[in-house]
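A.,

Following up on our hallway conversation. Structure tokens first:
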């Protein structure tokens, strides 16, 4: 039963290694599948829609299913979110696990070739064709290959029946008759190898080592989706055609179409274009993917299998062990899903305990339990641990102790009720907001259901099953499911460490084989907390002015204390309320020596608490409520934001307002953020992408020290008291703007604002002068800034950037620059990817800070091989020169403008779009005027206007360049000279 339940399990706890840039394993999203403690017997359907055969899960009647005589299956649905769009997915039942040894990478290569040329599309015509229909390459038009499937994706905006019919016709030609010529293969293989290079190096080594260890003896261990250089280079028209003939059959295809067209029309088009797909010969059965198997002679009670230690000097420590079980197809029944719910409860309870242990000063930064069914290869329970230091055995012991306690003793009723309340609010919100489900999301959910061999359930069905199952959620039932999660045929593990000789495979195996001692200290204590118990922020504030903003139904309010509000009650998005609180001066409020505290604030300001609420209490008070607490540092402001609902809106506003009225400065979150920053730092140097993440903003801001990533030494020198000295004045000074958009009444919102933000004391002006961001100083023409990385010697990156401007006065010009950057992007993609095969995904980015008078840029960048860096600079400079010399063609311009028009049209169906556009409008009224001209600014442009913009900004003498090269490599340009490492700016500490 594919529903919001799968995603729910991941709401409260983020996979820790992902936060540090290390992914322990690429796994299909699924959940534990066990029989519940008690359930009514299922009555599986023997007939009916193909997706529901063998299931008693009530059919989601909004889906219409069908099968064609040749075996093609389809699922179609009418959906008007966003209006006019149709989402198409063509899922082929073939992935990397279906490849033979000599075909490794062929499933993914074929995905590329299908786009290159086919029955109805000339060579290279697919992307331009859909751009003319308004679809953006990469977001609206894409494809993806997994170990078990290949899915072609098209989100078609402004989709008339004629456009949909044409698109399905083109897609049918791509599936049935791609042009698998030798020339096309020789063109596409370098592009795939460029993709492999960009995703390779350290990340590929760790992923391969992890997969090979955890799935030892199975096909999964030796079938990475990207393939191998040897098999890809050996591909030819005969071998690729044979692979296509074997797997691209109608009985392996599912066509999914969801959108703003009647289902009967969609069904007719699917039949018209896919019914003549011939099924030649017998269908080839999928190969056996294999099962995890314990080594001979292992301890039956605790079978420890393969273990591996991976030494990567530039990565933080990370340990993953997995309790492996064979994967088997299941009957997706109600009873089966009740088992999923119990398994998810068990995991949520353990994960909350692990988080509590880490917060209380544990020896690990993060730890998490996560059960997955992985690519039809294994049903596994993964345990991920990020040790704080080289004493990994202590960290593993602590984590296993928390798990051992969960295996020994049932959870309390309070623990179960806490997690049940979290599940319940998510399910209720899904029902409330079902009208907002986008067609693309529904189509992707169907693809996932097919991947994991499950059904689809409506939000109402999920909530009904959940509510009817609550009597099953007993301590004893959760205990039994916890024990099942940690029983398997074999346990395997991988430890990634920066230091050699810190661990060996044998010591890792011994640590896992040692008995775990139950540790109950992480069991949560304390009672539930209610907002009713919270002391008032102050006397309710007085509303001193209100009036229409002059656009949509938005109202502008002001309270006596100076807090300004943009208020938009709307029923267009039922069940959703969006809150943004914009305050202070953003980066302008910091001093040159504050880099460490800026980074720590981004991670720890919210967690440091407020009033009576520390981090644990913040979690408790929001249990069972739809509330959030996101924080962001922007150019000219700071921002709290959350998605909530009408019944929780008042308390969400109180929570944000209390942060200003009664800030708390707990040291624990700051110390934990310090540990995370230190652990992550060295990984930046492990790849060109990491160096760009570390240094690009610093370079684009003219080496402004506030935008520099702090070193471990600087982070180590930071203290909780220094953290308070930097952040307390920020919470106390400057204006506050609240944006409140969504499903509520005006009276309800004003009353909640009076008791929260209206009750704050008046805020003083800034005590110190604000410091604007620097503008880059242009180096001599032709001399790139050269930075080193310590990763794979085949990887490099390059960028060229032209400074532009900022502010609202030239907002129309900033939007026209988006059009120019998209023109540049199309040409760069053609030059570097399609013609040279030198880069997989070159990008051109346009930035224009609306709240600053300068600091914008138009920047082209690409990841490449070191020898291709000069080619990138040559291509980028030639593109810029051509745009300066002559206007683009009308067709080229339309291929950019039409997707932009459709993006804006789709985005503007959501109130969050307008909320983003109007951030800061209470102090900058020009943003209201700017919203009125937004569509025309992005969609009314002439070739001559583009040339004029290029002449203004893209002149050679206005650009600067950077290249990120392997350590010790020769620089890529004859005119280039290596730069010194980016030195820290002189500290101006507090």
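Then the amino acids I'd put at each of the 990 positions:
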């Amino acid at each position: 039963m594919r529903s919001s339940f799968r995603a729910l399990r991941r709401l409260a706890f983020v996979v820790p290694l992902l936060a540090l840039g290390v992914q322990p394993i690429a796994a299909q999203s699924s959940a534990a599948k066990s029989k519940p403690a008690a359930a009514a017997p299922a009555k599986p359907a023997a007939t009916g829609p193909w997706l529901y055969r063998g299931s008693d899960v009530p059919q989601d009647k909004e889906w219409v299913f069908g099968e064609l005589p040749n075996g093609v299956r389809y699922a179609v649905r009418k959906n008007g979110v966003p209006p006019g769009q149709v989402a198409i997915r063509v899922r082929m039942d073939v992935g990397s696990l279906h490849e033979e040894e000599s075909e490794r990478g062929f499933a993914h290569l074929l995905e590329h070739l299908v786009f290159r040329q086919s029955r109805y599309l000339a060579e290279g015509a697919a992307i331009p064709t859909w751009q003319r229909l308004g679809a953006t390459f990469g977001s609206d038009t894409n494809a993806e290959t997994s170990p078990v499937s290949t899915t072609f994706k098209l989100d078609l905006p402004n989709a008339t029946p004629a456009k949909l019919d044409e698109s399905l016709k083109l897609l049918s030609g791509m599936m049935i008759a791609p042009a698998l010529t030798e020339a096309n293969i020789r063109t596409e293989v370098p592009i795939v190898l460029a993709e492999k290079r960009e995703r390779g190096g350290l990340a590929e080594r760790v992923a391969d080592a992890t997969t090979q260890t955890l799935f030892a003896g199975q096909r999964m261990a030796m079938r990475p989706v990207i393939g191998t250089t040897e098999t890809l280079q050996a591909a030819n028209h005969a071998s690729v055609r044979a692979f296509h003939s074997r797997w691209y059959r109608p009985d392996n295809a599912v066509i999914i179409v969801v959108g703003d067209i009647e289902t009967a029309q969609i069904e007719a088009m699917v039949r018209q274009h896919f019914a003549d797909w011939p099924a030649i010969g017998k269908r080839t059965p999928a190969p056996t993917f294999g099962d995890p198997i314990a080594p001979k002679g292992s301890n039956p009670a605790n079978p420890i299998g393969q273990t591996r230690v991976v030494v990567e000097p530039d990565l933080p420590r990370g340990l993953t062990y997995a309790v492996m079980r064979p994967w088997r197809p299941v009957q997706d029944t109600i009873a089966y899903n009740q088992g999923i719910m119990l398994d998810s409860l068990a995991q949520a309870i353990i994960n909350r305990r692990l988080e509590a242990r880490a917060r209380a000063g544990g020896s690990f930064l993060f730890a998490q339990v996560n059960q997955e069914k992985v690519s039809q290869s294994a049903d596994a329970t993964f345990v991920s641990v990020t040790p704080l230091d080289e004493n990994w055995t202590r960290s593993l012991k602590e984590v296993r102790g928390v798990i051992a306690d969960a295996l020994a003793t049932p959870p309390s009723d309070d623990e179960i009720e806490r997690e049940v309340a979290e599940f319940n609010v998510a399910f209720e919100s899904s029902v409330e907001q079902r009208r907002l489900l986008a067609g693309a999301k529904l189509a992707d959910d169907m693809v996932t259901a097919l991947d994991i061999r499950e059904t689809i359930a409506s939000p109402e069905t999920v909530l009904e099953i959940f509510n009817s199952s609550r009597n099953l959620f007993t301590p004893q039932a959760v205990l039994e499911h916890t024990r099942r999660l940690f029983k398997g045929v074999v346990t395997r593990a991988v430890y990634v460490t920066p230091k050699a000789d810190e661990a060996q495979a044998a010591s890792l195996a011994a640590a896992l084989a040692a008995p775990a001692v139950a540790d109950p200290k992480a069991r949560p204590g304390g009672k539930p907390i209610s907002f009713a118990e919270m002391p008032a922020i102050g006397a309710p504030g007085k509303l001193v002015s209100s009036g229409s903003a002059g656009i949509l139904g938005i109202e502008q309010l002001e309270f006596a204390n100076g807090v300004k509000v943009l208020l938009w009650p709307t029923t267009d998005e039922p069940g959703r309320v969006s809150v943004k609180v914009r305050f202070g001066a953003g980066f302008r409020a910091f001093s040159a020596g504050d880099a460490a505290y800026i980074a720590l604030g981004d991670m720890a300001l919210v967690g440091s608490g407020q009033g009576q609420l520390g981090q644990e209490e913040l979690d408790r008070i929001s249990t069972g409520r739809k509330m959030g607490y996101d924080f962001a540092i922007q150019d000219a402001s700071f921002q709290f934001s959350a998605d909530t609902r009408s019944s929780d809106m008042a308390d969400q506003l109180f929570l944000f307002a209390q942060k200003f009225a009664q800030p708390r400065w707990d040291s624990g979150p700051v110390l934990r953020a310090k540990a995370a920053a230190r652990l992550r730092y060295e990984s930046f140097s492990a790849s060109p992408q990491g160096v760009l993440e570390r240094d690009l903003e610093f370079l684009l801001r003219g080496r402004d020290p506030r935008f520099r990533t702090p070193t471990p030494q600087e982070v180590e020198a930071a203290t909780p008291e220094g953290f308070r000295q930097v952040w307390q004045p920020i919470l106390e000074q400057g204006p506050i703007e609240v944006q409140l958009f969504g499903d509520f009444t005006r009276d309800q919102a004003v009353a909640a604002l009076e008791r929260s933000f209206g009750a704050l004391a008046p805020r003083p002006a800034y005590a110190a002068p604000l410091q604007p961001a620097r503008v880059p100083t242009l180096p001599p023409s032709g001399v790139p800034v050269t930075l080193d990385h310590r990763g794979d010697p085949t990887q490099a990156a390059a960028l060229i950037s032209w400074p532009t401007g900022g502010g609202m006065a030239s907002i129309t010009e900033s939007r026209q620059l988006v059009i120019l950057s998209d023109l540049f992007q199309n040409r760069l993609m053609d030059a570097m990817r399609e013609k040279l095969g030198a880069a997989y995904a070159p990008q051109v980015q346009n930035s224009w800070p609306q709240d600053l008078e300068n600091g914008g840029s138009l920047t082209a960048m690409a990841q490449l091989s070191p020898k291709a860096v000069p080619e990138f600079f040559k291509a980028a400079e030639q593109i810029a020169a051509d745009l300066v010399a002559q206007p683009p063609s009308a067709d080229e311009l339309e291929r950019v403008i039409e997707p932009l028009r459709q993006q804006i049209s789709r985005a503007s169906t959501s109130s969050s779009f307008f909320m983003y556009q109007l951030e800061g409008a209470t102090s900058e009224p020009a943003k209201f005027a700017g919203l009125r001209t937004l569509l025309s600014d992005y969609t009314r442009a002439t070739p001559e206007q583009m040339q004029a913009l290029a002449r203004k900004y893209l002149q050679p003498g206005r650009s600067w360049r950077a290249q990120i090269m392997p350590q010790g490599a020769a620089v890529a340009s004859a005119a280039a000279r290596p730069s010194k490492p980016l030195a820290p700016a002189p500290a101006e500490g507090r």
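The chain has four domains: 64-274, 298-519, 531-759, 785-966. Curious whether your intuition agrees with the design.

B.
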